[in-house]
Amino acid sequence: MYEQGSASGDFFRSVHDTVREIPAGRVTSYGAIAKYLGSARSSRMVGWALNGASEQVAAHRVVNRLGELTGRTAFPGPDMMQDRLQAEGVPVENHRVLNFEKYFWDPSIALGDEVELA
DNA sequence: AACGTGACACAGC
DNA sequence: AGCTGTGCCACGT
């Protein structure tokens, strides 16, 4: 139903595609993805999109701007997200990513979007 | 067709 | 310095 089949779900699908590009051992924020899609303030939509994301989408690599694993509530296991991140090499403490800035993965940069080239 | 919800972000208090 | 309120945009009912 609310899969990629939705014609209006272009935004929805774009989020999946972006998150899918996140390398293991890296994390990104909803705002970064939303901003990359063109709507920095629609970070909520990013989470909503991941809500229907398939397992091929690294939704567990997406955290909020503070590095908090806020999305763990939508996972089958409340600690599954944290455990999985640590398994990929991302240190997590109390459902928070340590050195978040260091592990932060920006789609705008990784995907080659010349934003600051000016 | 309209209202409510939602895994956020930012400004104000 | 932490909490509340509002804004954002799309999906769900």
Characterise this structure.
It is built from six helices and four strands. The protein is mostly helical and 118 residues long. The strands form two sheets. The protein has a two-stranded parallel sheet with strand order 1-2. A two-stranded antiparallel ribbon has the order 3-4. The N and C termini lie far apart (41 Å). Residues 1-8 have low confidence and may be disordered. It binds a DNA duplex (13 and 13 nucleotides) through residues 2, 6, 8-9, 11-12, 29-31, 34, 39-52, 59, 62-65, 69-75.
What key phrases describe this protein's structure?
single chain, 118 residues, mainly alpha, two-stranded parallel sheet, two-stranded antiparallel sheet, 4 strands, DNA-binding
Short description:
37% of the residues lie in helices and 7% in strands. With 118 residues, it is mostly helical.
The parts where pLDDT drops under 50 for at least 5 residues are 1-8
What is the assembly state of the chains in this entry? Answer: single chain
Q: Kindly state the number of beta strands.
A: 4
Main sheet makeup: 2 strands, parallel
Shape: globular
Which strand-content bin applies to the residues? 5-15%
Order of helices and strands: HEHHEHEEHH
Class based on secondary structure composition and strand pairing: mainly alpha
**What is the helix content?**
25-40%
Task: Quote the distance from N terminus to C terminus.
Answer: 41 Å
* SS summary, helix count: 6
pLDDT averaged over residues: 83
Strand order of the largest sheet: 1-2
Radius of gyration: 14 Å
